[in-house]
Amino acid sequence: MKGYGPATFGKLNADDYDALHDPGTTDEAVALLADLAKGGSVLELAIGTGRVALPLAARGLAVQGLDASPDMVAKLREKPGGADIPVVIGDMANMTVDGKFDLIFLIFNTLFNLTSQEAQVRCFKNAAAHLTDDGIFVVEMFVPDVTQFHNHQNVRTARLSETGVTLEASLHDPVTQRIDFQYIRMTDKGTKIVPLPMRYAWPQEIDLMAQLAGLDLKNRWGGWQRERFNADSKMHVSVYGHRSTP
Ligand SMILES: C[S@@+](CC[C@H](N)C(=O)[O-])C[C@H]1O[C@@H](n2cnc3c(N)ncnc32)[C@H](O)[C@@H]1O
């Protein structure tokens, strides 16, 4: 998608992000991440409007963030406690945060917002370089489901209410593992078109990215409540740490 850069997601979505992007798992995610952090320092890549970072900070953890979008971070700043979280504006594929962290996390499928394998690998390398010796990198991703595409495309009703409908139209390129989405939001007030390019990766490919960064898979769950990961899992929460740690 021409002209779609790291800051574009926020430009298009910051105003209604909190209202339209609730995965319904925030409490479970916060509980597991707080447990994994063990009181240590925390960095969220793609912190957004602070959906998870703010409740983690409210639990007393030292949380920092990075995000490419000044618009998303402006929303974070408006919330109680949002002004106290140090945030670097930057691209997670070229991370420029100082220091090392006991827990770095990148959740809600956001690794896939980097639209090339090369950028995703770089993101893993950057995360690994910012981990303490026994630090961990936690990612949450969907498990790709290419059965939804017919002739490499799909249209589905993503949302529907008395006042509107959101259609999700997508084109799939199985060679590059890219999906270009258009969300067409129609209400009685008009129509808004919101593009979203993504590049998906299978769990095993993500493990290889970790290996290239000197990290090994320490744990993989099928959900934030440590559900077993199996062939029916729609998503995974994966924990990586340096190869030398037990
Ligand atoms: C789906 S939101 C996730 C926000 C937050 N982590 C959450 O779980 O609610 C995606 C976020 O990734 C950010 N983002 C997209 N591409 C990025 C990049 N290359 N580097 C840093 N942040 C990026 C967007 O600005 C947005 O805040």
Structural description of this entry:
This protein has 246 residues and is an alpha/beta fold. The protein folds into 2 domains: 8-143 and 201-242, Rossmann fold (3-Layer(aba) Sandwich); 146-198, N-terminal domain of TfIIb, CATH 2.20.25. It is built from 7 helices and 11 strands. The protein has a 7-stranded mixed sheet with strand order 3-2-1-4-5-11-10, sandwiched between helices. It has a 4-stranded antiparallel sheet with strand order 6-7-8-9. The relative contact order is 0.14. The model has no long low-confidence stretch (mean pLDDT 96). S-adenosylmethionine is lined by residues 6, 9-10, 46-48, 51-52, 67-69, 72, 91-93, 107-108, 110, 113-114.
Distance between the termini: 43 Å
Average predicted local confidence, pLDDT: 96
Number of domains: 2
> Do you know the CATH topology of the largest domain?
Rossmann fold
Work out the helix count: 7
Structural class: alpha/beta
Helix content: 10-25%
The H/E string reads HHHEHEHEEHEEEEEHEE
CATH structural architecture of the largest domain: 3-Layer(aba) Sandwich
